[in-house]
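4.2 Preliminary Data

To establish feasibility before requesting continued support, the project team ran the inverse folding procedure on a target of 246 residues. The structure was first converted into the token representation described in Section 3, and no sequence information of any kind was made available to the design step. The complete token record follows.
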């Protein structure tokens, strides 16, 4: 995938011991900046480092994706659109689904999107969160608010709701067309599930009061389904209630 001329890709290497910068940059092409830290800061730690770097660089808009996600051919059309919004959430597709999806619809050259007010946005699209990807203006992020999301594994999406809670009139956009690929992580879902549900409870417990009613509805509807094993429902609810009590 080639980047538009006025875009840059910043690669943050989180203290890896097997990263070959020359090989990576040769595969990426132009408009690439490599930023390395010498020790693993964790996923939220490297996001805080990235936000600080981007603010100092006066970058403006940035697209944040998870550490095991990756861009696909359809991603380039997100770059080419001028969004009349302060917050954009980007829909994704699983790595195992992408070929079947393209066989049925082809490579999407037109991005379909939906605009909504913050509360309607949260109620209808927060089921995509926190496992989502966001585009936002880093200049609107208050670094003093980032620490409380540290440890949820999804700091960048928490910052999104913080911003929306202070900007009730902002227009939000959800890109319905899958425009990046969800990674499968380094751990199996079974071994990772306990930690995921615990952090999900914390994440929803941190949602700003402006979205509390919507957060509780979504948490119970999406993350505590009846077909979820009881031990994971209990773990998520316990961490959620514990966070609310702080």
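Position-by-position output of the design step:
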């Amino acid at each position: 995938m080639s980047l538009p001329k006025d875009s840059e890709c910043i690669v943050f290497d989180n203290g890896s011991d097997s990263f070959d910068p020359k090989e990576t940059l040769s595969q990426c092409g132009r408009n690439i900046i490599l930023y390395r830290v010498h020790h693993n800061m964790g996923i939220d730690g490297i996001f805080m480092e990235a936000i600080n770097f981007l603010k100092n660089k006066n970058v403006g808009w940035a697209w944040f994706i998870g550490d095991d996600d990756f861009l696909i051919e359809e991603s380039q059309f997100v770059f080419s659109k001028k969004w009349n919004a302060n917050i954009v959430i980007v829909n994704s597709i699983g790595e195992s689904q992408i070929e079947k999806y393209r066989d049925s619809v082809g490579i999407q050259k037109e991005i379909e999107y939906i605009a909504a007010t913050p509360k309607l946005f949260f109620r209808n699209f927060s089921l995509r969160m926190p496992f989502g990807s966001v585009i936002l203006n880093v200049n609107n992020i208050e670094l003093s608010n980032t620490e409380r999301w540290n440890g949820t594994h999804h700091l960048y999406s928490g910052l999104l709701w913080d911003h929306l809670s202070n900007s009730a009139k902002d227009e939000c956009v959800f890109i319905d067309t899958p425009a990046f690929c969800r990674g499968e992580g380094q751990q199996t879902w079974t071994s990772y599930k306990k930690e995921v549900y615990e952090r999900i409870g914390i994440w929803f417990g941190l949602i700003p009061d402006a979205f509390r009613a919507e957060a509780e509805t979504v948490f119970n509807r999406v993350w505590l389904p009846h077909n979820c094993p009881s031990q994971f429902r209990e773990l998520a609810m316990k961490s959620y209630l514990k966070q609310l009590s702080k």
